[in-house]
User: Which sequence fits this backbone?
């Protein structure tokens, strides 16, 4: 993929670059479709929005003060929480020349168009092995992570799904890389919907 990204950089440097950066450029679309795996796009954005409007200019990558935006397929932005969490500052949106297409309004929930985002604690958590730790709870500003001491012998991290903003700050904090993010489960259908 690095090689492919390199190819795109040289394409964009070509004198015909303006023409080549037109939004529905077929080669670009094909490259996106081949990338296969689900990529986390910047907050307020989505795969479709990036496909429709992103020109791979890199402005948002440079603007992000947390350095969590890195170049994904064809130089388009993707989120990498291994460097830290999103503060929802909106600098990526403000820097983007194509913001009207690439980003939803900032009043919207930042991950809404990507299925919502939640932290998830994996099997690697030290508490699962009886080793005390609660480093992740200190990294979580909204206090969505708590040590539940009712679970023996050393407790278990409990996630408050309502409080979690999907900021990803806990991912970098965990010394065992036991935390990742997942999309929010769809709400259970109400009785009225079920019988409609
Ligand atoms: S909102 Fe701010 S911290 Fe989050 S990805 Fe955009 S620039 Fe980075
Ligand atoms: S600033 Fe906008 S157009 Fe440029 S790479 Fe980021 S999302 Fe794409
Ligand atoms: S993703 Fe953010 S809000 Fe959610 S648990 Fe981790 S640090 Fe807390």
Assistant:
């Amino acid at each position: 993929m690095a090689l492919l990204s390199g190819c795109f950089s040289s394409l964009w440097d070509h004198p015909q670059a303006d023409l080549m950066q037109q939004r529905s450029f077929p080669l670009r679309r094909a490259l996106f479709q081949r990338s296969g795996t689900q990529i986390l796009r910047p907050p307020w954005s989505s795969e479709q929005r990036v496909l429709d409007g992103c020109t791979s200019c890199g402005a948002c990558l440079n603007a992000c003060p947390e350095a969590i935006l890195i170049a994904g397929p064809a130089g388009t932005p993707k989120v990498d929480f291994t460097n830290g969490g999103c503060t929802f500052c909106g600098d990526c949106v403000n820097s983007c020349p194509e913001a009207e297409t690439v980003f939803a309004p900032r009043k919207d929930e930042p991950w809404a168009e990507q299925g919502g985002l939640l932290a998830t604690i994996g099997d690697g958590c030290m508490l699962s092995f009886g080793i005390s730790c609660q480093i992740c709870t200190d990294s979580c500003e909204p206090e969505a992570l708590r040590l539940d001491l009712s679970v023996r012998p050393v407790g278990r991290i409990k996630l408050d799904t309502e409080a979690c903003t999907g900021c990803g700050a806990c991912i970098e904090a965990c010394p065992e890389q036991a935390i990742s993010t997942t999309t929010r489960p769809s709400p259970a259908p109400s009785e009225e919907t079920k019988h409609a």
Observations:
- The CA atoms of residues 144 and 163 lie 5 Å apart.
- The pocket of iron/sulfur cluster (ligand 1) is lined by residues 42-43, 63-64, 66, 68-69, 86-92 (CB under 6 Å).
- Strands lie at 69-71, 77-79, 117-121, 145-148, 156-159, 179-183.
